[in-house]
Design goal:
Elements (H helix, E strand, L loop, with lengths): L1 H32 L2 E7 L7 H9 L1 H4 L2 E7 L3 H10 L4 E3 L3 H8 L18 E5 L15 E3 L6 H12 L9 E3 L7 H6 L5 E5 H8 L4 E5 L3
Parallel strand pairs: 1-2, 1-3, 5-6, 5-7
Antiparallel strand pairs: 4-7, 4-8
Length: 217
């Protein structure tokens, strides 16, 4: 008799746990339905966006009613295309993209509404280790710089000029390689140097290349 009573109460507790679990799951699903879906296209996965990744993992967006989905679109041109086509609601990229779209006569042009970073995140990567490196070592060399008039290429130009190097006469800037293919092209043997974002730069440095300079401008 005693065993039957124990089994009865154990069954009742188990049933209660299952019921609470089902109700909690239903409530969570109902809450999810009330979330506003936002798709964000980012130009690259980078440590500069760490606050965003932390907010996603910790559920801060859900707390304010947002269901945020990240879409990796390598390059500002790809981010722009994603937003203009409606595949993304917001794009993270260099602000030059908004200027190009506006100058192109697009009626539904993009608008820059927030500044995410104050510094550039490009690293200069060399094929061979160089002791006591200086930017003068770049003279006469080829640098894979990214798409012409893209933010990485323009930042590189600015950094060179700030250090007394003419980017048009004293170095060769290779702008024929797409943003997403820069590291692969460099590993394949093209260029003497390449400018890469933090994640790609650190990955490549573990293989055969060497971090030389941070364009923290």
């Amino acid at each position: 008799m005693k065993n039957r009573i124990i089994l009865f109460w154990l069954g009742a507790v188990l049933l209660l746990i299952v019921a609470c679990s089902v109700l909690f799951d239903l409530n969570r699903k109902n809450d999810d339905k009330n979330l506003r879906k936002i798709t964000v296209a980012e130009v690259a996965h980078t440590i500069f966006y760490a606050p965003q990744y932390a907010a996603l993992e910790l559920g801060y967006f859900e707390e304010v009613g947002l269901d945020v989905e990240l879409l990796l679109a390598n390059g500002a041109d790809k981010v722009t295309a994603a937003v203009l086509s409606g595949d993304a609601d917001i794009g993270f990229s260099g602000s030059e993209a908004t200027i190009y779209v506006y100058n192109g006569g697009e009626k539904d042009y993009l608008k820059t509404f927030a500044q995410l970073t104050q510094k550039d995140g490009s690293f200069l990567v060399s094929r061979e280790k160089q002791e006591n490196f200086s930017l003068d070592n770049l003279k006469g060399k080829t640098i894979i710089a990214g798409r012409a008039f893209g933010m990485p290429e323009m930042t590189l130009r600015y950094a060179l000029k700030q250090n007394g190097i003419n980017p048009d006469d004293e170095v060769v800037l290779d702008t024929s390689v797409a943003f997403a293919a820069m590291s692969g092209s460099f590993i394949g043997g093209n260029g003497d140097y390449v400018a890469l974002f933090d994640v790609n730069a650190t990955k490549k440095s573990h293989k055969c290349d060497f971090l030389l300079y941070i364009f923290n401008i």
